[in-house]
Write a structure and sequence with these properties.
The protein has 14 helices and 5 strands. By secondary structure, the protein is an alpha/beta fold. It has one domain: 3-Layer(aba) Sandwich (Rossmann fold). A 5-stranded parallel β-sheet has the order 2-3-1-4-5. The termini are far apart.
């Protein structure tokens, strides 16, 4: 018989909330996690087989689940060779693509397909106890960062930043609404939410929360340079790219511009007053989240200076 995880711990994003930073640290401690009974397939492992797409489409995710455990594999293409193995009881996943693409940050509501995607995730775990983790961030910062990421990916059919700005000021997107839809899609899962702002103040505490053990002594990593937002100058250059270029050429050109970005001017389409306004709405949204879903939003002490 195939061995299956006894429980799942799944970090579903959101994008631009230090997900790459978190995943890189987990990869460095993969052996330690295994010694504690936690199997952590890395980001590259998941993406080499398009794990998130497989979950979303429901076409092959049962095969992916049946190929667990992953801890002894260097490449996912070798997974089919496994017949049986002593398994680790906990499977830890961190993949923001499970929630949606980065354009989910610049829609009128965050990640419109979240409920349907979580329903597919629920089908995949097949009744095993599951804890979902969602990291969130001030819309005044995550919306510009998400827009930058969408441009960098070569997307052509995204709203203008002027449209996104006006819409966000008139009706800021709500994380409480997203939590509501995540819960609708996967009501049995325990859901834990933290903010990006608290994560960057004390990543060790939130990594312990994610893995479910007080491991401590997590590696200290700088923010990855390959996820930084583009400068205003580079965004202007990308806007000038010929829209008739095919997708691959456009992505190539965007990558070249990103590689040469010197970060001259921080991209922030909101004025100082607008940032203050959106931040007030964010704080009110966090209060609403705690009222509607008591205990879901976690607060941990920041590091002592």
């Amino acid at each position: 018989m195939k061995a299956h995880p006894k429980s799942w711990r799944i970090h579903i994003g959101a994008h631009k909330t230090a997900t790459t930073h978190l995943q890189d640290i987990l990869e460095l401690r993969r052996g330690v996690l295994a010694s504690q009974g936690i199997d952590y397939p890395t980001r590259d492992m998941l993406r080499s087989v398009r794990f998130a797409k497989s979950v979303r489409t429901g076409s092959t995710f049962y095969k992916l689940r049946d190929r667990w455990p992953f801890r002894q594999l260097s490449q996912w293409r070798d997974l089919h060779r496994i017949q049986s193995a002593k398994h680790l009881p906990v499977l830890l996943i961190s993949e923001e693509l499970l929630l949606g693409l980065c354009n989910g940050l610049i829609n009128p509501i965050f990640y419109p397909e979240a409920s349907a995607r979580m329903q597919k995730l629920r089908e995949m775990v097949k009744g095993a106890p599951t804890t979902l983790f969602l990291s969130i961030r001030n819309p005044a910062n995550i919306i510009p960062s998400g827009y930058s990421q969408c441009l960098r990916s070569g997307a052509r059919t995204i709203p203008s930043i002027a449209e996104i700005r006006q819409r966000s000021l008139a009706n800021p997107p709500s994380w409480t609404d997203l939590v509501r839809r995540v819960r609708k899609g996967f009501p049995e899962a325990q859901l834990i939410v933290w903010t990006f702002e608290e994560y960057i103040a004390n990543p060790d505490a939130y990594l312990d929360l994610l893995v479910g053990k007080q491991l401590g002594n997590w590696p200290s990593l700088e923010a990855p340079s390959n996820t930084r937002s583009m400068s205003s100058e580079t965004i202007d250059l990308i806007h000038r790219i010929n829209k008739n270029l095919d997708r691959h050429e456009r992505i190539k050109r965007c990558a070249e511009l990103y590689a040469g970005d010197t970060g001259q001017t921080h991209f922030q389409p909101f004025s100082t007053e607008e940032v203050t306004e959106i931040t007030r709405a964010y704080i009110a949204d966090l209060d609403a989240l705690e009222r509607e879903f008591p205990g879901v939003l976690h607060h941990l002490p920041t590091k002592a200076k």
